[in-house]
Design a protein that fits this description.
alpha+beta
């Protein structure tokens, strides 16, 4: 791309014919607007009439991130650069949203004031009679200045878009991530493991919360840059599964993965009960499989992009349950799938089991846990962490109407693993499986914690009949929650967790709404 050493020193009258490319991020309340369903227009207000430019001048390059590109030849720009311009968007469900007016000349005149290479324009109350608005003036109503990227490009056919613009995080976000990472860094030792646990994102259009969740994920990406984390966990229910058609949620999942892919540490994603999109029907109506996000569709969007040495079922290499070994820590992290139901089609073509009403651990997953995930015979001083969207039982741990299928077998296996003993158990029906396990030869092992989401509450429990801590983290999403104030750090919620495998202590440092928790191993 041909750019002068100082591309902002542009004299339009002396510039040879070329293409000027303006990259813009359209935002509302400081967050990028999802342009998927919007139509865009660019109006030039001339002295005698208004000129609505054809859409050949505007290209939406990143609809989910509000990014558009506006292109002009030198000749076109010379004709309109001093006239007021205004970008507008609208769809069939909303009135037209108009952004602050500006001139393209003022963009070029003021762009030396920009700190980085992105243009951020925010919605505000405007009308067509206001005075011409320079980019510098418009910036006063936004965050830390209007950001702009102008490229002087001789051949637009060779133009390649720059790296995806993530935007600048608000100062309150960077302050909070710095504070949280400092707490983690202060207690980290060679015997601890550190990770973020963010769960129940519910990143949906119908809650108008998809954009906010993207910003929450960017805060998580920001904290991992400090180098204090070993991994990141997304605890399930990434969306609410209410769509009559699964293309929208599949697209949203891919975009969430795209954001998380900026992480330099492993990302472990759990499967939640909403994630199969089965909440689009109201019981007693059952969903049909054509509207369900299948295991393969989920795996390829939320697990495959982050694969980095995780071990899946030897009989199913696309299982949504898996484990990852952290050799330097001597810790195995086991990720369970608590929405692992058998695929059985009723005579009327609907599904017998689905995520909305059927929670549990499938028969093959139980056998895998026994024979593969808990098999640490050659690792005498290793510990394990269990991660799942749901806990293993309802009493004291969740607010369901019943225990998850095979939750009792999961508990029995974990308890025998921890004590180095035998366990025999069985269940019947479509989830039925028989277990005859012995962990005597490998001896007792430590279970550092079982960490889960689902309930949208914070709680810590240690059932007396089991012997390890269950840590429950509340929901990342905040739509409709009065105390979760938008555009403040309280809007967000996730934990940076530090587990000490020697002392057994657990520190959950809260980012956003809520409080830090310190749990001692008894």
């Amino acid at each position: 791309m041909a750019i002068s050493h100082n591309p902002y020193d542009v004299n339009l009258s002396q510039t040879a014919s070329c293409t000027f490319i303006f990259k813009v991020v359209l935002t509302k309340n400081k967050f990028p607007i999802d342009l998927t369903s919007f139509k865009l227009s660019l109006t030039i207000y001339k002295s005698d009439d208004n000129l609505l430019l054809d859409l050949n001048h505007i290209v939406v390059t990143e609809p989910l991130n509000g990014i558009i590109i506006i292109t002009f030849t030198t000749e076109e720009l010379l004709l309109i650069n001093t006239y007021r311009a205004q970008i507008s968007i609208n769809n069939k469900n909303t009135n037209k949203i108009s952004f602050p007016q500006f001139t393209f000349k003022s963009i070029i005149d003021n762009c030396k004031l920009a700190d980085t290479h992105a243009s951020r324009v925010s919605t505000s109350e405007t009308n067509n009679n206001i005075a011409p608005l320079s980019i510098k003036d418009a910036a006063k109503n936004i965050t830390s200045g209007l950001l702009l990227n102008i490229c002087n490009q001789p051949d637009t056919c060779n133009f390649k878009q720059n790296v995806l613009l993530k935007g600048i995080l608000p100062q309150y976000v960077t302050d909070a991530t710095l504070k949280t990472q400092s707490k983690v860094a202060d207690i980290t030792t060679n015997d601890t493991i550190q990770f973020v646990f963010a769960t129940d994102l519910h990143a949906d259009d119908y809650l108008n919360y998809y954009t906010q969740i993207q910003s929450h994920l960017n805060a998580i990406i920001d904290i991992q840059k400090y180098g204090v984390l070993d991994f990141i966990v997304i605890g399930g229910d990434l969306h609410s599964g209410v769509y009559h058609g699964k293309e929208n949620p599949k697209s949203k999942l891919s975009e969430l993965a795209k954001t998380l892919n900026d992480s330099k540490v492993p990302v472990l994603v759990l499967h939640g009960n909403h994630d199969d999109n089965s909440y689009y029907v109201v019981p007693p109506i059952n969903p049909v499989i054509s509207n369900i996000i299948t295991k393969r569709e989920w795996f390829n969007r939320m697990i495959r992009p982050f694969m980095n040495g995780e071990i899946h079922d030897t009989e199913d290499n696309m299982s949504l349950y898996y484990y990852k070994d952290f050799y330097s820590k001597k810790i195995r992290v086991i990720c369970l799938d608590s929405s692992d139901y058998p695929i059985i089609i009723n005579k009327d073509g609907t599904m017998k089991y689905y995520g909305q009403n059927f929670y549990g651990f499938g028969s093959r997953q139980v056998l895998w846990l026994q024979s593969e995930a808990l098999n640490t015979l050659d690792r005498t001083d290793w510990s394990v962490i269990i991660l799942s969207h749901m806990a293993t039982r309802n009493a004291d741990l969740m607010f369901n109407k019943y225990d998850p299928y095979n939750g009792n077998l999961i508990e029995g296996l974990l308890k025998a693993f921890m004590n180095g003993t035998d366990f025999v158990g069985s269940t019947s029906g479509d989830y039925g499986v028989s277990i005859n396990a012995s962990f005597k030869s490998q001896g007792p092992r430590k279970i550092l914690s079982y960490i889960y989401g689902h309930t949208h509450t914070d709680q810590n429990n240690k059932p007396v009949d089991l012997g390890w801590n269950f840590i429950n983290t509340s929901c990342c999403y905040s739509s409709g929650i009065k105390e979760r104030i938008k555009n403040t750090v309280k809007e967000d919620l996730w934990d940076a967790i530090v587990l000490d495998k020697i002392t057994g202590s657990i520190d959950c440092y809260r980012y956003g709404y809520g409080f830090d928790r310190h749990i001692l191993q008894n």
